[in-house]
Design brief:
By secondary structure, the chain is mostly helical. The protein has a single domain (2-116), classed as YppE-like (Four Helix Bundle (Hemerythrin (Met), subunit A)). The chain has four helices and no strands. It has helices at 2-28, 35-64, 71-87, 95-116. α1 packs antiparallel against α2 and α3 crosses α4. It starts with a helix and ends with a helix.
Length: 117
């Protein structure tokens, strides 16, 4: 169980970084990303990973009862990451808010990895 949560958490950290890189590229592009060929497949892929992580992490929390990590935080982080992935494809997303949201996600995911160590 711990190994599954660790692997999925590391994948989500990578996904957050990919979203940040994608956001930077989107800002430099002319025009918008095509929803059906670019945005939708990327969001669906991320959503499936996030859903699996959420289930495994909730189960781990119930079993291990970590002191500083709670299921409500997992749900909030999952929702924030879903939004991050989606917003990374749109220029009208605010840079500061996007960066702060990514840092918040990174902090929480890293705290899970620290707890698993």
């Amino acid at each position: 169980m711990k190994d599954d949560v660790r692997i999925l958490t590391e994948k989500l950290l990578q996904q957050a970084q990919i979203s940040m890189d994608n956001f930077q590229e989107t800002l430099l592009k002319d025009g918008e990303n095509d929803f059906f060929s670019v945005v939708k497949p990327a969001v669906e892929e991320a959503d499936s990973l996030i859903d699996e992580w959420k289930k495994k992490t909730a189960q781990w929390i119930k079993e291990a009862a970590p002191k500083y990590i709670h299921i409500s935080q997992v749900e909030a982080a999952a929702e924030n990451l879903e939004q991050l992935v989606l917003q990374s494809y749109y220029k009208d997303s605010k840079q500061k808010r996007f960066k702060n949201q990514k840092e918040s996600i990174d902090y929480f995911l890293q705290s899970i990895l620290d707890e698993l160590s």
